UniProtKB/TrEMBL annotation, chain A:
GO CC, alphabetical: plasma membrane
Membrane topology label: Peripheral membrane protein
Organism: Fulvimarina manganoxydans
Species classification: Bacteria, Pseudomonadati, Pseudomonadota, Alphaproteobacteria, Hyphomicrobiales
A GO molecular-function descriptor: ATP hydrolysis activity
Family: Belongs to the ABC transporter superfamily.
Keyword Ion transport belongs to the record: no
Gene3D superfamilies: P-loop containing nucleotide triphosphate hydrolases
UniProt-recorded name of the protein: Amino acid ABC transporter ATP-binding protein, PAAT family
TrEMBL record, chain B:
Protein name stated in the entry: Amino acid ABC transporter membrane protein 2, PAAT family
UniProt-listed SUPFAM superfamilies: MetI-like
Listed GO biological process terms: amino acid transport
Organism: Fulvimarina manganoxydans
Top-level taxonomy: Bacteria, Pseudomonadati, Pseudomonadota, Alphaproteobacteria, Hyphomicrobiales
Location (main, coarse): membrane
Transmembrane domains' residue ranges: 20-44, 148-168, 188-210
TrEMBL record, chain C:
Compartments, record wording: Cell inner membrane; Cell membrane
Descriptive protein name: Amino acid ABC transporter membrane protein 1, PAAT family
Family matches, as PROSITE patterns: ABC_TM1 (PS50928)
Species of origin: Fulvimarina manganoxydans
Signal peptide (UniProt feature, chain positions): none
Domain ABC transmembrane type-1: 13-201
Ranges that cross the membrane: 12-37, 49-70, 76-95, 180-201
Amino acid sequence: MDQAASVRPDPSTATLPEDVSPLVRMRHLCKWFGEHEVLRDISLDVDSGEVLAIVGPSGSGKSTLLRCINLLEEPSAGSLNVGELTVEFDHPVKRRERKALRQQLGMVFQSFNLFPHMTVLENICLPQRRVLGRKRDEAEAVAKDLLEKVGLTDKAAAFPSNCSGGQQQRIAIARALALDPRVMLFDEPTSALDPELGLEVLSVMFSLAQSGMTMIVVTHEMSFAEKVSDRTLFMAEGKIVEAGPSADVIRRPQSERARRFFRAVNGL
Amino acid sequence: MGATWSDVADWIEPLSRGFVLNLEITFITILLGFPGGFVLALLVERRSPWVRWPAMVIVEIGRGAPALVLLQFVYFGFPQIDLTLSSFASAIVALSVSTACYTSEIIRSGLAAVPKGQKEAAEALNFSSADSMRFVVFPQAAKISSPAMMGFSILILQSTTLCFTIALPEIASQAYEIGSTTFQYFPILSLTALFFIFVCVPASFLVGWFERRSEP
Amino acid sequence: MTPDYFLLLLTGLPYTFAVTGGALLIGALFGFPLLLVRRSKVTILRWTAVMLIAVIRSIPPIVWIFLIFFSIGTGVFPISPLSAALVGFGLIATANMAEIYRGALIAVHHGQTEAAQALNLSPFHTMWDVILPQMVRVCLPVAATYAIGLLKDAAIASTIGVPDLTYQGRHITQMTLQGLSVMGSVGIIYVLISLPIAWIARVTEAHIRKTVSL
C-alpha cells in the first residue's frame, strides 16, 4: 500500500478516493440494538489484497462491525458493497442478497465453532457439497489440500474434540477457505487460545496474507496488527476513531482516546 | 342428559374438600421428604461403603419403583406384619419416601454444583466441616436446586391423586364417586382438571421464571 | 408368593411395556411438530403451544386417563382400557417430549447456527446437517431418563383395568393377602427394568460431551 508513505490528512478517514473501486465498501453503516447505538455512521473501504486489522476496547463495536459484513447482524442503515454486489439497508435483507454476499466471505470465529459431531474432513467437506454442490471426491481433494496447507493432514479422520484449540482454529480457517471466499473475516481468532497455540494460528494467517488474500481481522494482538496488517483501524464507542498505516496508528496515535488505549495495551 | 350449572355448584363442595386433602398431603410430604432427601444426599456422598451402599440402594429403589406401587406396598403390604396404617398415613409414608429419594438426587447435584473453591476457602478459613456445609455450601446449593425443588413440588401435588387407589377421599376419588353415581364423567372430571390447571399452570410458569432468573 | 403367582405377575409385563413404549413413540413423533409450533414466529401460535403444553402437564395422569376412558368410553364410541391409556400417556408424552426437544435445541451452542450461516448453509441444511444431529445426541440421555419416569407413570393404567404389572400385583395381593412380598416384588421388577435404561442414559451422556458443542 502506497498509503503507508503518505501523510495522513484526517486520521479518521478510512475510505479511498471515489474513483478507486475497493473490494469491500461500507457507507454510513449504523447498527442499533434497541435503544443502544452500537455502530455510528461507519464508512470504510478495504482494497483487494489488503489486510486490515480492527482494534479497540471491548464494547467498541468492532466485532459487531465484522458480523455486519456477513450479515450475522443486520445493519440498521447504510449500504454495503462486496465485489459487484451492493446491499442497501433501507429494507430487510433478502435471502438471495444474503446468500450472494456470504458466498464471497469466509468467517473465522473466536470459539472456532467446528461441528463437533463430524470429523475434521467432514467439517471441511459438508459446506462445499451443500453450498457449492461439489462432488464428494472433489470436496475431499480440496479439503486435503487445505489441511496440508494448515499443517494438519494427519487430523483428517479425527473429531474436533480430539484436537487442540490451535488445531481447531486452523481447521476452521481451512473450512472457510474451502468455499473460495474473496475476503476472509476473523473475529478475535486467537483470543480463546494460549499464546503458544495462538502462534500457530497467527502463522497460518500470516502465510494467507502473503498469498494475497483480502483479510479483515478483529484482534487483540498488537504485534499481528503491526507486522502483518497493512492498515489498522482503531474503534471506540461505535465509531472509527483512527485509521491508517498500522505502524502509525499503533506507534503514533493522534487522538487522546487511542493514545490511552495503546498505552494500556502496551503496559506503558 | 348433560350437567346443569346447579349440578356443577353441588360438585364444587365435595371436590374442594377433596382438593384440600391433596394440598395437606403435599404440604406434609414436602415437610418430611425434602429434609429426608438432604439426609440421603449426604449419606450417599459418605466415604464409608457401609453407609454409602445402603443409602444408594434405598435411593435407587425409591426412585425406580412407581409411587403408585409404593403406596399399595405400604397400604396393602404393611398389615401383613401387623402394621395397619390409615390411608392418610400410608399416603404420607409412601409419598415422603418417594420424595426423599427423588430430591436426594436434585440436592446432590446442587451440592456438586457449588464450586470446589468455596469448600477450599471455608477449609482454609478453618471452618469445621459442619460449619462449612451450613454457612458456605448449603446456602449456595439450596439456591441452585430451588427451581428443580419447586418443580418437583408440583409433581408431588399431582401424585397425591394416586391415593385414589387406597380409598382416600381426595379429589380424584371424589370425582370418580360422583361420576359413577351420576354418569356425568366428562363434566365432573373436567372440573377436577380445572382445579389442577388453576394451581399448576401458574405455578409452573413461576418455576420457569425462577429458572431463567437463576441462570448466570 | 408361589411360582404360579410370580408367573401370573409377569403376564403383566407386556402391557407395561406396551403402554410405556407406545406412549413414548407417540410423544417422540408428535413432540417435534409441537416444538416447531412452540418456536413459531407467529405469536398467537407460539402462545397456544405454550398454554397447551402447560395445561397438558398440569393435569395429573390419573385424571387424564379417567377423562379419556370414562367420558369417551361411556359416550359415543367405547374405547378399550389399553387404547385409553395409550391416548392419555401419548398426550402427556407429546407435551413432555416437545419440552425435551426444546431444551436440546437451546443446549446446542448458538455458535453452531452462526457458523452454519456464515458458511452459507441453507436454513434447511443448517437444521438437518448441523443442529438436528447434535439435538438428537443431547436428547438421548434426557429422553432415556424420561422413559423411566413414563414407565412408572404407566402403572396408573392399572386403575382403569389395563392388566399390567401393577394390576396383576394388586390382583394377587387381593387373592393372597400378602401385599408385602407381592407389591415388593412388583417394585423390584420396576427397578430392574429401569436399570438398563438408566445405564443407557449414563453411557450416552458421557458420549455426547465429546460430539456436541454445548
